[in-house]
Amino acid sequence: MGYKHLSSEERYYIETRLKMGDSLNTIASSLQRNQSTLSREMKRNTGLRGYRHKQAQAFAQKRLEDKPKQRKITGATVDYICYGLKENWSPEQIAGRAGKDGLFKMHHQTIYNFIRKDKRLGGLLYRYLPRKLKPYRKKYGSSGGSCKGIPGRIGIEDRPTIVDTRARIGDWEADTIIGKGHQGAIATIDERKSKLRLAMPVQKKTTENVVGALISLLLPLKKHVKTITFDNGREFASHQNLSKKIKCDNYFAKPYSSWERGQNENANGLLRRYFPKTMSLKNVKNQEVIEAVDRLNSRPRKCLNYQTAYEAFEAETKISRKQLLGYALKI
């Protein structure tokens, strides 16, 4: 049961019993109130001439009137929220980045409430949210498959422990997303510390195509590649070719343990907003993937203190967004 404010009748009763010499504990028991409620009442609403119920009621009413009201969202704030949503930022990212840039301070739940109200009034802002305000449903099972048929496979249990700390640049996670009816795929790879994502479409999910795409993506950044962690898909069977080209160490997550590459799995889910499971990926152009990945890398991230992945990666490597996009366009 929620807290209820003392009524004027209760305050009159308190004043009467105090004049009779009763203790706060006794009065609280009679009113079926916690003693701390009455102690707080005495501290807040006692005047110079002692506790008087009319004065106490006036003090409480004034305090209620002076309490800050729910903040109204101004036009400029609405514009910023709409801009963030159209950039596929979450309400938490919008609020965090606005605070970081000194634009305004607002709790992300306030933005969710604004979106819900807009939806009730027939607005469409909710469509920019990943789940469109639908309740979360826990997923069971996972991808990953058997670890058979991968030459030179080294398990994640042998991976250096420093990778788990995300204390350095250069540790990556890789996977693919598949088109409808297994038509086409996109090879994806994510840097663990900066959250930078790279991706490239392939016509068929063969190991030559997928590993070749990863080599093309990472070759300009090979100085900043120390380890790569894969799932157990057969498309990574020729991972040793990548290791030789990039000079990195490769590791594989345990079968059916997609959470061991949680960053890549989450980023793949975000990329699905642009390339849904109902869509064939056979004819997807590299430019389309570059544009989608650019939007993901431009999102402010809470775990990066609301920097973008581009900003975090540049701070560590001195490689700018412009340079990264240039590398991608040359592939």
From TrEMBL:
Keywords attached to this entry: DNA recombination
Residues annotated as domain Integrase catalytic: 156-317
GO CC list: cytosol
Pfam families recorded: HTH_38
A GO biological-process term: transposition
PROSITE patterns in the cross-refs: INTEGRASE
Transmembrane stretches, start-end: none
Cited InterPro entries: Homeodomain-like_sf (IPR009057), Integrase_cat-core (IPR001584), IS30-like_HTH (IPR025246), RNaseH-like_sf (IPR012337), RNaseH_sf (IPR036397), Transposase-Integrase (IPR051917), Transposase_IS30-like (IPR053392)
GO MF term set: nucleic acid binding; transposase activity
Protein name: IS30 family transposase
Protein's organism: Pelagibaculum spongiae
